[in-house]
């Protein structure tokens, strides 16, 4: 149980790391997970504050049902529609601080990839996508992203299918995708940012299709065929 009440400010990362005798990277990753789950809020220039765990940030039973009923390809399609538009808007809104956070996320992703350990953490991936959502400076878009990511993390079918993707080759490809997205955001190229994010999630979908059992009666990948990029940009 946390000794901090809703509305209270957490100590700085450095102090938490010293108290727990861990690195600041470990603390940062833990705080990102808490932010994704809606348990803390990062306020620019003010610190990190505890949120009310009994509030609307928690996944209720109806949310859980949505999460369990949706197939992995349905979730990916929703992410494509949401995150490609988030990336487009972020290209206009991103500040220098936002770009720094994205670069830090990619550095973390590279370190995780270099470890080459099976089942190694993918916190950098999550941190990168979250940083893009936060770069919109729109709290509703950030919350929608958090919710979609939480559904992904809790979805039984996604977990099972994603377990087959424990291959550094795929993760290197997606790291390359992330670098293309970042390059577009740095240039403030809205069209390129939108298409790069769309194509990234399309690449993820294609990899998942490779490991799908098309003979499974619950296979739903055929319902979510790819859209040509020119239609995405229409």
TrEMBL record:
InterPro entries: GntR_C, TF_FadR/GntR_C, Tscrpt_reg_HTH_GntR, WH-like_DNA-bd_sf, WH_DNA-bd_sf
Annotated ranges, domain HTH gntR-type: 1-53
Molecular function terms from GO: DNA binding; DNA-binding transcription factor activity
Keyword terms of this UniProt record: DNA-binding, Repressor, Transcription, Transcription regulation
Superkingdom as given in the UniProt entry: Bacteria
NCBIfam families reported for this sequence: PRK10225.1
Protein name: Uxu operon transcriptional regulator
Species the sequence originates in: Escherichia coli
The organism's taxonomic lineage, starting at the top: Bacteria, Pseudomonadati, Pseudomonadota, Gammaproteobacteria, Enterobacterales
